[in-house]
Amino acid sequence: MPLNLTLPEVVAVLPLLTVTLTAMLVMLMGALKPQSTTGACVLSGLGFAAAGLMAATEPVGVQSTEIFGGMLKAGNFVDYFVMLFCLAGFLSVLLSHTYVRSKGLAAGEFYSLLLFSSAGMMLMAAAADLVIFFLGLEVMSVSFYVLAAFARSRPTSNEAGLKYFLLGAFATGFLLYGIALVYGATGTTALEGMGIRASASPRMPLFVVGLGLVIVGLMFKVAAVPFHMWVPDVYEGSPTPVSGFMSTAGKAAAFAGFLIVFAPPLTAAAPQLRPVLGIIAALSMVAGNVIAIAQSNIKRMLAYSSIAHAGYILVGIVAGNPAGNYGVLYYLLSYALMNIGAFGVVALLESGEREIAIDDCTGLSRRAPALSALMSIFMFSLTGIPPFAGFFGKYYVFAGAVQAGYTWLAIVGVLMSAVSAYFYLRLVVVMYFREQPEGIVAQPQPLGMAALALSAAGVIGFGVFPSVLLQYAVHCF
After folding, report:
1. pTM of this prediction?
2. Cβ distance 309 to 288 under 8 Å?
3. Burial level of 61, CB count in 10 A (0-12/13-18/19+)?
4. Residue 222, Cα to own-chain centre: how many angstroms?
5. Disulfide engineering: 416 pairs with which of 193, 204, 285, 464, CB 3.0-4.6 Å?
6. Cα-based angle 201, 204, 207 (whole degrees, multiple of 5)
7. pLDDT digits over 301-331, tens only?
């Protein structure tokens, strides 16, 4: 079947093309000038910024339209996620500049993998067909496997890459087998066609099992219980900027898949999956928050926190109503800002091969007042304290759950948010209310501090003016 490209279709995929071409250029620069860390960093940042601006200049109010023969979609939903991925990538590039140089990592390969993983995420968000979604997922996943093990001189990094690869390949098998079953039940992998045929024949056990396996594969990517055991070791062993990027942009891409797969036409044919997902959301919130209390390593604490936040966002998916969908979009962007910021502070504090423990930050406010203030903002937002963006993210997803009749799930979320205050605010207490004149201190890193300041500004700005982001989210559905 011939594919006749039109100018609007090419314009719609310009952000994806920009990121992909930038990745190739960065890889070439790494081969020609392997010592040029700054050049690779600047080029990568420009690529992310250009792609994000292209998505931001799309007119507001454009609903999803199929392009490229029904394989991809364009519209505000895709643009929103493209902007989120590019923002997360841009911040990660700034935070990783000094980290990559100080650790002696290969800048060309590092930044090109960061860009390629973002290209895979964009394919996932724009997918109108499960085959395209799977291709995007694999591009992202393979890049992450390598990035997790990128600090080859550290045994923990090698362990992180191996664990992520083995368990990720196992989860991919579930996803692919689910796609095969869904295809066998409906005769198509196109999402729109699947919805039409599933609605016409609602009693299809093969379709329900296939959709359930697809959801299992997605739950691994968002680190929901019981598919979460890889998260602490992978986040702890990976280079810290990579951990921040994986926990935010990678999670957002998987949740884009949830929003696509859990669209009403598909879930109407498998209503029994929604309560099951509600139980998984509750377990994720409980397990993530309770186990995080016992952590002494900051990266492991943030890893278990990531599991809990996956549960919070799943609450909006379970709700399945407009309020829940808007809440998911708002939450994903606010979570990207505050979690990249938190991992960014850890990256600036790290020196040598030793991981940063919570007690290492004792008295940090006197040695690094700006860094302590920024970390406190991110901890307050992750807890859900107003007027920061994290509070409104939780409010919107919980409100959607109440409207959908899942009040019990919202109650679990509120209670677990209260529990999370212990381990988030413990770090603030250690920094500000305990004395230790000597200890770790961050070296001056202008690009890293600029990224943290930008993240903090977003956390505060979207918290004080949540309607700015929410109004755009309304146009995505």
Report:
1. 0.93
2. yes
3. exposed
4. 8
5. 285
6. 110
7. 999 999 999 999 999 999 888 888 899 999 9
